[in-house]
Each structure stands twice: as C-alpha cells, then as structure tokens.
DNA sequence: GCAGAAGGTTTCGAATGTCGAAATATGGCC
DNA sequence: GGCCATATTTCGACATTCGAAACCTTCTGC
C-alpha cells in the first residue's frame, strides 16, 4: 500500500480507537450505574495512590467545586469512596477508595491493562519504540491544535 | 530501555493521548459555544457526505430521539445545520451542514488532519505499517473488553 | 382504496447534573 | 485577636437528557 494510503488509514484507525475508548468508558459507567463524571473521578481516586482531596478532584475533572461535592456524595452513597477531613489541614476533605472500589478496579480496569500488555508483547523492542514515538507525536499534534483553538480568538462566525 | 518498560510507557502514552483528544474536543466545543453532544452531531454531519437523518443521528450519538430533536434545534439556531423533510420519505428529517458549518470545519478540523498528516510523513512505510497494526490491535483489545463488560452480568458489588 | 400497523420525529413533564454565588469553617499573618 | 486567604458545602437556577404520548407519513393486507 502507498504511504499516502497508510497515512490515511492511520488517521482513520486513530479515530476508531478514540471511539472504542469512549465505548469502553460508557460500558464501565453503565455497569456501575454511574455517570461519566463519577466514573472519571473514581478512576482518578483509584489510580492515585494516597487519597485525592476534593479540590484536586475539582481541578482534575475541570468542573466546579459545587459539582465536585455532589460527585463525591454520589460515590460515597454508592459505597465506592469515603470522605475524611484531612488531619493536617482540616479545611480539606480527602477522598479515599473503599475495598468495594478496589474490587471494581480488579473487575474493570486491571483486565484491560493485562490484555493490553499481552497484545504488546508481540511487538519487537524496535517496533515498540516506533509506537511510543508515534503516540507522543500524535499527542503533541493534538495539544498544539488544542492550544491554537484556545488561544486564538474565535474568528467571527459567518464572516 | 527494557521491553517491559516500553510496554508500560506505551500504555501511559495511550492514556495521555486519550486525554489530549478529550481536551481538543472540549476546546472546540468552547470555541463554538456548543456542548459536546452538539459538537459530535455537527462532526458527524460534516464528515458524512450527504445529509444525516435525525434517526441516524439518534443511533450514532446513542441518545434518545427526543434529545436528538433538541440537538438539531440548537445547531439550527446556531446556523450550523438546516432541517428539511426528506422528499422521498416525508416522515424523515434530513440534517444538512450549512456554509457556516463548512467554515467551522476549515477552521477547526482540517488543520488537525493536515498537521497529523505532516507528522506522519516522517515515518517510513514499514513504521507506518507497524503503527497501523498497533492501532488496530489496541482497538481490538478495547472492543473485547467493552464486550466483556456489556455482556457479562455485573458481579454483585460488595460481594 | 382503506383500515390498521409500523416508522420517524416532535412535544411534554420529570429527573439529573452542572453552575455561580453565598455561606461555613479553617488556617496563616501581622 | 482581627483579617484575609483557602477549602468545601449549600442553595437556587439553568441546561440536557429521558420516557411516554402525540402526530404525521408510509406500508400491508384485504
């Protein structure tokens, strides 16, 4: 296949991959009866070792402090996290994953990591290096374009 | 670097790439004053050549028919799409991108594609083949895992 | 041809998630 | 000790989504 064709295919597969990530998140949320924001919050709390403060969640999720409170409320009600005041700074609230959340992690997230690692073992070290480079390049492109959108003032629509 | 380390890095970069896609969508939505659902709908209408029917949008976006109606309402009010009855089947409503929407496409989406293609030109045909294979494999893993989540009944939480 | 079923979209009311602003509580500073 | 900054929560308002019912249009069987 021509290089031009390959490039087009890569772009298309990247798009499809994006969609498959999206579908996975959706399925995970449905399985837990959570919305996407709650799931992202749970994911953050699980991934981080050591608890997350409410404010950190607010920043990581890019939602308002008010919304964060209700996210934590819902996760707490679902038995997935606990709320404790930080002993060192009693203004802060620490969010900690419960054992139930760890079971969820084992059920949902660990298998993905394992399956992914298994699939990657089929590539040579050189190929993995190429893949890694590609992923970094793709991210760089996205970030540059995101910055372009954010920084430039929007052109007057309908100009 | 060890192969094991490379595999870990690939997993991490994949996660970061996902986040950068997300950030791009968010910036694009903010630039247009649309929510994410509306943006996805616009993207679909732009990507498809030939108009999208309301029902197709409902299925593609995985939202209710009622929600689709309001999505089209908002896009129409923003001057980005037009609603027309399908002449061949007057029950259906066809959604067509306007010229304004095409300007948006040129402003937002085309530059990403161009920057991406430019970046990919730096890879050899062999490398691109590896990348393409990797993307397909990654998608397959995600889809398999999504199916696992969807099909298996959820294990009783807090067992 | 026409009655009734099926298809496609919209309207309506209710539920949910998000926000900004104000309130509350704690910590740091002269 | 009073005052400003930090961290979270409460409150009321707004936007988005849904399910159910309503409304046309098309198809089917007779």
Automatic annotation (TrEMBL), chains A, B:
Pfam families: MarR_2. Residues 3-140 form the HTH marR-type domain. It comes from the Bacteria. This is HTH-type transcriptional regulator YcgE. It comes from Micromonospora gifhornensis. The lineage of its organism: Bacteria, Bacillati, Actinomycetota, Actinomycetes, Micromonosporales. The gene is ycgE.
